[in-house]
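Re: the request from the purification team.
They wanted to know what the chain is likely to look like in 3D before they choose a buffer screen. I agreed to run a prediction and write the result into the notebook, where they can find it.
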Amino acid sequence: MLGLAGTPGAGEDGESSAGESAPSEPPPVAEVGIEAIDYGATPMTTVPDGIVKTFRIPAPRSRIVSADGVTLARNRVGKRLVLPLAKSAVSADAAVALVAGLRSRFDESVPLFSLDEADVRKHYEHRPWIPLAISPTLSAESVAALGGGLPEGVSVQEVSVREYPEGELTAHLIGYTGVSLPDQHGPVARVEYAWPPTEGRAGMETILDEQIRGSDGEVLRLYDADGDLRHQEIVRKPTAGNTLVLSIHLGMQRLAREQLERSGRPGAFVAVDADTGDILAMVSHPTFDPNLFEGGISAETFASLAEGKDAPLFDRAVAGAYPPGSTFKPFVALAGMEAGEIHGTNTLYPGPPGLTIDGRYFKNWSSDSFGPMDVCYALVTSCNTWFYQAALNTGAGPIADVSTRFGLGTAPLLPLPSVAAGNIPNPESYGDPRSLANFAIGQGQVLTSPVQMALAMAALANGEFVPQPRLVRETVDPRLGTLILRNPPRKASLLRLRPEDINLIRDGMWGVVNYSGGTAGRAAMRNPVVYGKTGTSQWSVGGRMRSLAWFTGWVDAKNPRIAFAVVTQGKGSETLSGGRSAAPIAAGFLRRIYGETETYAVTLPKAPSRDRPAIIAAAIIPPVEEPVEIEPRRRGGLLRFLFGGGRRTF
């Protein structure tokens, strides 16, 4: 596990116990603009025609910190402009005219609310002693544009503002907030706020809103008849939400984003600790700046994001559900072995350029015809026709069963909205020959998300279980910096597969990257060794087919043992391949990390954990004039196509 930088209570293994110190920064904003004002020993009785009202003070939201101690979300003091109508206007008509003329009194760079005449009248009639907000929270540029002076009657009100220092880098993860109760203009309610409270609107901010928001405080205020604040005292101080320490390593997060940007295409990258389930990096590209939403986002700006090219608001890593293509083949092979239809390396299928299945021609990605090959070499070359035969013999039931053991078809437990469950087809309705052909190569109705595939690769890496993803690692007291709660690693599900079967899949995935005929040679590293599987699939976007390229796998290292998934989307009719388009993205990420081990808190292994597997290549055979035809058996399922046993058709 990655330890917190500068955490006295975190040892080499990242463990810590309650009461130990954790990184902290100055106390969060808790009493913005709330200072004592007292004009007499008994101000409530000495101010003629005084108006007394208790206001709630919105609590500061939790600070959110990365595993390497970088603040990802915090609270700061913001400023907005207000206008006390009681002392600025003698009538509702005068108030309306005053507000209507404000635009001409400010520089154009200072944003002002477009207040309805009806709202101004209601405010004057029902609450003239409560200052009218005339602007959203101002940016530093807008504050500078004020030039140190304000029009007569206008004043500055301090408010608590949510801020995201890393901006676009963690936008889909952290999310953003919005005003939950806007400034009121009608009759004074039983509950009033010192400034508008906020709530989570996206990302962790919305799913963990109750935990993040803290406890509101209360302030008692006395206004005189002219609307001047004469006295205020804090009845109850607001309590900030507890600090959340994430599993995200910001350096890895930044590196993943750089690699996706360099590709020039939309995509997603997820890296997890295969043993603990810690999400080390999770990036969707393109992205957006969550700071745009603080204080209110304009309709024009929101529309540009919501309707923007390549959908920057869409979290491809978590909410995206895509055909996994050939990255799904390891699970098909495991299902065949589990069902007793594939007997290790003894079961051999040929690899023709195509097969006619139930009257439809299904092709391989290569036009070459290969002789009989085993499961390892079939994975190395990603031979579609081999896997068509494997799926036809295995059946939909075992494939669906093994896939679900790897967490596919179920939404991972993440504190994020719109977590995709993907789809593993119902074997009862997806067991016909054509459907099985699509099932075999991760197409048709098969859908997975990048985070699901990263977790499935984690399970192949550890060989025993799918880890439950862990995004929030610890909860820390915001003032003392002491640990309140640590979320331990958990297992989402057990694989219950034979170790020898998993080792055969590992051999094949070693060959994908490290064997001369593998499809992902661009991702090879000397140390640590990379295991992987490429994939290419077709995906419909707005009724048009787009090409997707995948690369998934893990590294043969511990502390941490990183499993990953990369997907990148072609533009227009662009054709991609997993080895050419996705593998270099992962390679750039991994080579940088293991080239700077101290920076990224990883450990280089002294030697590979497994012996170099023996990959047996299949020979190219002369092409046949007619395509191979495979038809269903009349009884007991589909053709059993085993080289050296059973029926064979050429």
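For the purification team: Residues 172 and 203 are 6 Å apart (CA to CA).
Please add any questions underneath this entry.
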